[in-house]
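re: ur msg from earlier - yeah i can do the adenosine-5'-triphosphate complex, just paste it... oh wait u already did. ok heres what im feeding in:
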Amino acid sequence: MEKLVSLAKRRGFVFQSSEIYGGLGSVWDYGPLGVELKKNIKERWWRSMVHEREDIEGLDAAILMHPKVWEASGHVAGFTDPLVDCKHCKNRFRADDPKIKGTPGQPDGQCPVCGMKGTLTAPRQFNLMFKTFMGPVEEDAAVIWMRPETAQGIYVNYLNVLQSSRQKVPFGIAQIGKAFRNEITPGNFVFRTREFEQMEMQFFVKPGSDGEWFEFWRGERMKWIQGLGIRQEKLRWHQHGKTELAHYAKDAYDIEYEFPFGWNEFEGIHNRGDFDLSRHQEYSGKKLDYLDTTTNTRFVPNVVETSAGADRTTLVVLCDAYREEAVKNEDGADKEELRVVLKLKPELAPLKAAVFPLVNKDGMPDIARRIYDDLRKRLNVFYDDGGSIGRRYRRQDEAGTPFCITIDGQTSQDQTVTVRDRDTLKQIRVASAKLLDYLKEQLTG
Ligand code: ATP
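and the outut:
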């Protein structure tokens, strides 16, 4: 994992937040390549959920919501983790931290950091929602929460979307947006952070058909993830047992990936029954049932949710793409060397191609610049004239760039360039006039 974190920093995928001030715990910033990678993943999700389906509408609800939303959803009362403090060293832990020996709150409870016994407090429930105040007065009546999930923005807009889009049940609402959780034990890079992005879709169905739709969405989500190019053997399902199920859930499956730190969830598919709309109906006093005009019956729709983290999915894509390989030296020396390469699916790669003049003379930079200017109107491409060709290839391997284009001595004679493939290292000559078509074909193929 350290290797991936260091590559992410070196190449500009992910930086620690506020690094020059020593960093802010478990908050990360996406650099020039990271923002492109995450955007490509989000766009792919949006396309498959919203654009390719006539029964799903998009939404972008605000992060701040009426505080009653979080009472109705159960988050004010129940979105908590048990927490213990060490009175001696002032560290904080989850009560179920396996490093704690003995029982917190009892004389045998031992702090895993300072090693003192009897200094741990009894567990207290700690709400994971970030609290702030709306308006100038910091009083209880002004308390407002930063949303810990995007789903509630969808439920409270269910009627607005239904009426304005003229959809009929079954139909869905999809949203991508930030969520905030004051996690007690964050960590593992962007796996568990305090500010993150979710890609959630809530599908509203007739009660009784929820089981079928749940299976349908499980299948669709797995297909989508496989479409990101993730190795099948690194993916598995985990069904929630009775004790794991959230208070609202009838059934739930996680999709897990084998990260370098073990198997962990990065997406959940949940059958939430009618919990959400019923609760909002009760707390708001506004009718949220649905009139089925074909049968003239009314019901509160059930919800099947697909909930993915954009950051965790980006981490899955990065972990899965990261490879170290022995390859031949590409500057012509007769030796092998180790390269780090991100074998990203070309469609997800932040940069689609890099353009290099072989040397900075003989008119090559002029031609290279022209080609670069032409390509970047259509594709995200990069220009690099620094260092040997081999070193430039290695930098693009680490960025996951599928193609490197070199302008050499032959280009001014026959108007062809070399195109080098990231994965096979093979080079072919392509007419510069046909370069864009060639790349577009390869990138979508
Ligand atoms: P976990 O058990 O790992 O805390 P969860 O079961 O609470 O996750 P959900 O509430 O189902 O997660 O959220 C759906 C998705 O949102 C997760 O699969 C994950 O991809 C993402 N997610 C949740 N919490 C975080 C976090 N703190 N940092 C990054 N992504 C997160």
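cool cool. The mean pLDDT is 95. ping me if u need the other ligands too
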